Amino acid sequence: xxxxxxSGGKSTRKHTALPKTQTLIEALPWLTRHHGKTVVIKxxxxxxxxxxxxxxxxxxxxxLRHAGLRPVVVHGGGPQISRQLDALGLESEFKAGxxxxxxETMDVVRMVLAGQVQRELxxxxxxxxxxxxxxxxxxxxxxxATKHYADIxxxxxxxxxxxxxxxxxxxxxxxxxxxxRIPVISSIARSADDDHVYNVNADTAAAALAAAxxxxxxxxxxxxxxxxxDWPRSxxxxxxxxxxxxxxxxxxxxxxxxxxxxxCLHAVRNGVHTARVLDGRVPHSILLEIFTDEGIGTMxxxxxxxxxxxxxxxxxxxx
Length: 319
Known about the structure:
It is built from 9 helices and 14 strands. The chain is globular, with a radius of gyration of 22 Å. Helix 3 (78-87) packs across helix 4 and helix 6 (202-213) runs parallel beside helix 8. The protein has an 8-stranded mixed sheet with strand order 5-8-2-1-11-13-14-12, sandwiched between helices. Strands 7-6-9-10 form a 4-stranded mixed sheet, with helices on one face. A two-stranded antiparallel ribbon has the order 3-4. Helix content is 39%, strand content 24%. The protein has helices at residues 7-34, 51-66, 78-87, 103-126, 171-178, 202-213, 243-249, 258-268, 285-291; strands spanning 38-43, 70-75, 94-95, 98-99, 132-136, 143-152, 155-168, 182-186, 188-191, 197-199, 217-222, 240-242, 274-279, 298-301. Strand 3 (94-95) and strand 4 (98-99) form a beta hairpin. The longest helix is centred in the first third of the chain and has 28 residues, at 7-34. It has 319 residues and is of the alpha/beta class. The chain starts with 6 loop residues before the first helix and ends in an 18-residue tail after the last strand. The relative contact order is 0.14.
């Protein structure tokens, strides 16, 4: 006997809905585990220049907030800074993977990061509600930096107004998180010594903030799938490694990956439970990493803690 003309439609709806429910059920233990935890996300790579990826990133961050997590976004803006410098006839120079930052370049860095990149990201997030608040590391003394010198072939090289994080004050960020907001932080820091402002590598800034906040996770978006096991001979991605294992690999990494992986190492050695490098070219990579069993990218974890209880000796025997 026929179920009537609507039976085919109901069957189709049932089958299309089933995978969605399975995805939600798979996410449940991860939702429970991460509820109330702080997650620091470094926004960079293709995800910050491709319009569709930018929109997907904003959706992911808002999803985290509504799922009960406390996301903090840290961003740089290398491509946008280079474009603006070109437009002004100023040279972009890099040494040891870092931008040489003259006083004139610093003015452009400040303008682009706080006035352009940050505003676009805040506006994208706020399309989903009054959630995001933009700040720089200068605001409320969030980040203080000292002058950073590069080491090139054993020689100390002056990079201008490039800084390394000296201190972090998380008070303003924690107040925003407690109020249900999403802080969006530009990687600029005040000087710990004088009235200067420093350009800080965004990977380094994100790692320092994650450690200071006692974050559950640091997530770094980049333009590769993760940390490759034997690049360029193989494109096999290392899915998980300990801090010690990462430390051994650092000297042989490509220059672009060094600050990202050094940031991950700093984070897990200073209280952050996991640090992850994700392919920002994959839409919704953040949700895939946090809320699925397989995950993507490379995850760095702290070294295992030695068992403080010594094993019984043969003479002692069983208790």
